[in-house]
Design goal:
Length: 837
């Protein structure tokens, strides 16, 4: 009811791909007098039954519809080719087998087509090649090979003629990308690609098949199984035989027989397993690819781009799956399950191996909706369509009311019911085969090549004669059931094809399949001395990038981590020794520099200020992650001393009154966010504009010189916490400013804030938090809810040091004016800048 009220009218496109459940949903919603639903679809293009699309659901919807309209004009094919297709599909009034699906003669649409001119050898718009039968029909395998070779030779001839100026499309030379070869299976596509490669013609495969059905996926399973069990030499030898490792039989025999080679490989596989377990699948497979030179070896093969693309695609899918299947055993189970999946997700469909201008080899399922100036259909005459049969899911077919049925009955082999069911299954399979042919033949704009003719098979011997391609021209006046039992002779089929050709006004012409060997394509060569260097462009616009406070302050080109953590603080020089009266475990003696700062940050990120029982373990973990060899002289400060320093530091910082009535000891974990990450859009940010804003707002910051930023500002706020209804930003600073309370007073802190550009840092943080809070607090107002910014120079934050003029040593506090945040929002291009209140 809610959907119908909101959308009283609906238009559903590609409705021939609907399944029964979808149809039931649509009828439940829209089968009322107050609703209007338009269903758009072509039942002749229903070819996705493998994805559960159900043509019979479309036909039932057609019965449901109150009115019917048809599109009568073809806006793709040229007029002569359209005439040929009309003649071919119009030769049989039951061309599409099912009585509910009819072929209507199609008119030539008004859309303009790019002119196609061929001054080379004569070819018809629908060029039909008949398989040779000199001395008897060719075996099916040889017939396929002959069709593939003829296809490759003709493509090479067309492209050579185009290079010679004899064939043009839209006043330019015909290109490889203007030609498509449509196939029923990837195996046939692979044969075509290899034949083209032998004639120096590049091609690329496009398919809706699953990457997990590829040979490369099987290779990955073999390799990963061996890596998961590296001591099983049988699995190891199998892995070495894959394309990923590329060892031949002699090499594998030497490895298996040698006393030194096999242990070395076992150790290698164990290292891969350790890398997989400890660092993840991604680092392991990249290391393996580097060690084994996989890319170099695969690309040296004729179809190397395809193989490498598949290898990398499988690896990428496994890397994604490893996030939820981290262990080797779990990931292997996922891979095996994916290989059994019949309907792959979009990400698992085979990818193009190249984006160059190459001949397109496309499965018929993948070409639906596309068009190509020239199309080759090398083996649509294949009559080997398998009929359905029993499976774990029973017999699948449709009953007289067009409803889908799965029959689980255990029929006797000669039961009349089973004979009728098998007949219905065969009928539906044949109808789908005709629809696949229709989709393939109607992809062409100017010319389509089709192979027909007899071939030999051992069983059934008359497979070719009863192909559904022959059904189009010789099945008129017969029922499909009679056609499946018919035994037409070659002469009868030739006569039927000749009759269609003679009635096509030369739009459909039948010629013998060319059998001469193809001539390799001669690409034009360029004299190296004629090459010149183009003039450089006057200006190259800056690319989209990610930056941060550090990137803006120090001109870094990219700051992907955006973790500042005192990274710019320089370690103290060797002569900077502390006064003698400083206690040995005072934090003022703690090592300095960026690594020491990271260690201190790690402590404050993990501790609970209100519970000191966990402080020592957090400090130990931080020190372990930042060893003395990185943060100071390992001979001068033992771990126990460093631990006491940090314990005293945490206690002092937690207990110090930062503001009136506020100390961190009163801030529980439930009222704080640690390392709050943000990404702020910065579509057009210049250094000059930001310098002007900071100067006008009274902030002393070193002049910014970063390049214009188009992208995002990224950052991590050390700590955000709530106190008495207000939200504060806190940033930890480990800068060593001196050894007395005065060194951490107001004036020294002001100098440090200005010298390091920290004012810009907290302004960016304030803007990010302001946007964050506006999204989460319904009645949010900056003046009410934003408490301000605290920068703690932690070496000087200690309750024992007295405050002077209300200035707590080591504590810098500031609350930016709302006008400043509003101006910064506006500068960053925020459409809601005016909403900052």
């Amino acid at each position: 009811d809610a959907i119908r009220t909101r959308f009283p009218a609906a238009l559903i496109d590609e409705f021939q791909d609907t399944d029964p459940l979808q149809l039931a949903i649509f009828r439940k919603i829209f089968d009322t007098r107050d609703s209007l639903v338009l269903l758009v679809g072509d039942p002749k293009q229903a070819i996705y039954s493998f994805r559960h699309a159900d043509l019979h659901s479309y036909l039932r919807a057609k019965r449901w519809a109150a009115e019917h309209w048809s599109l009568t004009d073809n806006q793709r094919s040229s007029r002569p080719l359209l005439n040929a297709l009309n003649r071919l599909f119009g030769s049989n009034d039951r061309a599409f087998v099912l009585p509910e699906v009819q072929y209507r003669q199609v008119e030539y649409g008004a859309k303009s087509r790019a002119p196609f001119v061929d001054r080379s050898e004569t070819r018809a718009p629908l060029q039909v090649w008949r398989l040779p039968d000199d001395g008897g029909e060719l075996p099916k395998t040889r017939a396929k090979q002959a069709a593939v070779e003829a296809t490759a030779a003709e493509i090479a001839r067309l492209l050579q003629a185009a290079l010679d100026g004899h064939i043009t499309l839209d006043a330019r030379a015909l290109r490889p990308g203007d030609i498509a070869v449509l196939v029923r299976s990837r195996s046939l596509g692979g044969e075509v690609k290899r034949a083209l490669a032998s004639l120096s013609v590049g091609a690329v495969e496009l398919s809706r098949d699953s990457i997990f059905a590829s040979p490369e996926a099987r290779d990955w399973e073999t390799v990963l199984t061996a890596i998961a069990s590296p001591t099983r030499d049988a699995l190891l030898r199998a892995a070495l035989a894959t394309e990923i490792f590329g060892r031949d039989a002699q090499q594998i025999e030497r490895i298996a027989a040698g006393e030194t080679l096999l242990p070395g490989w076992i150790m290698q596989f164990m290292e891969y397993r350790d890398l997989w377990v400890n660092r993840g699948f991604g680092p392991m497979y990249r290391q393996l690819f580097t060690d084994q030179a996989v890319a170099k070896r695969l690309l040296a093969q004729i179809d190397g781009e395809r193989r490498l693309t598949n290898c990398l695609h499988v690896a990428e899918e496994l890397q994604q799956a490893a996030q939820s299947h981290p262990s080797p055993e779990a990931l292997l189970r996922y891979l095996k399950s994916a290989q059994e999946e019949q309907n792959p997700a979009d990400t698992a469909q085979l990818r193009l191996e190249s984006d160059q201008n190459l001949v397109q080899i496309v499965t018929i399922h993948a070409c639906k909706g596309l068009e190509y100036p020239i199309v080759f259909c090398p083996f649509l005459c294949d009559g080997g369509t398998k009929s359905g049969g029993p499976s774990l899911q029973g017999y699948e077919y449709h009953d007289q009311s067009l409803l889908p049925v799965i029959d689980f009955n255990d029929y006797a082999k000669d039961a009349p019911e089973l004979i009728a069911i098998k007949g219905q299954i065969e009928l539906e399979k044949a109808a789908e085969t005709v629809r696949l042919m229709y989709v393939a033949l109607t992809r062409a704009v100017h010319r389509c090549y089709l192979v027909i003719g007899p071939y030999q098979t051992k069983s059934p011997k008359d497979e070719c004669a009863r192909s559904m391609l022959n059904w189009l021209v010789a099945g008129s006046g017969r029922s499909p059931e009679d056609w499946f039992k018919s035994k037409l002779t070659t002469q009868e089929l030739d006569a039927a094809w000749a009759a269609v050709a003679s009635a096509s006004d030369a739009a459909l012409v039948i010629d013998p399949l060319p059998t001469l060997a193809g001539v390799p394509l001669q690409q034009p060569t360029t004299d190296g001395t004629a090459l010149t260097t183009p003039a450089p462009p006057g200006n190259i616009a800056a690319g989209w990038r990610l930056s941060s406070y550090s990137g803006l302050s120090y001109g870094a080109r990219s700051e992907p981590a955006a973790g500042d953590h005192d990274a710019r603080i320089i370690a103290a020089p060797a002569w900077a020794h502390p006064p003698a009266d400083i206690a040995p475990d005072d934090i003022l003696r703690f090592p300095r520099g960026p690594d020491a700062g990271d260690c201190i940050h790690a402590v404050f990120e993990t501790i609970d200020f209100t519970d000191c029982s966990g402080w020592e373990s957090a400090i130990t973990k931080a020190l372990t992650s930042h060893p003395q060899s990185r943060i100071g002289d390992p001979t001068s400060l033992p771990a126990t001393t460093l631990t006491r320093m940090l314990l005293q530091l945490v206690g002092d910082v937690s207990a110090t009154a930062l503001l009136s009535g506020l100390s961190l000891a009163s801030v529980p974990l439930s009222r704080r966010l640690t390392e709050l990450e943000f990404n702020v859009p910065a579509p057009h940010l210049s250094a000059a504009a930001l310098n002007t804003l900071l100067k006008q707002s009274g902030y002393e910051v070193p002049t910014l010189t970063f390049g214009a930023l188009e992208g995002y500002l990224k950052g991590f706020i050390d700590l955000v916490f709530e106190h008495q209804g207000q939200y504060f930003i806190l940033d930890w600073k480990s800068n060593h400013l001196g050894y007395t309370a005065d060194d951490y007073g107001g004036a020294p802190l002001a100098r440090a804030m200005a010298d390091h550009g920290y004012h810009l840092q907290y302004l960016l943080y304030s803007l990010a938090l302001d946007r964050y809070l506006r999204l989460r607090i319904a009645d949010y107002r900056y003046d009410t809810h934003f408490g301000g910014v605290l920068y703690l120079f932690v070496r000087g934050v200690r309750p024992a040091w007295p405050a002077a003029r209300n200035e707590v040593p080591g504590v810098f506090f500031h609350r930016p004016a709302v006008e400043t945040i509003r101006a910064l929002n506006h500068l960053l291009g925020s459409p809601s800048a005016a909403a900052v209140t």
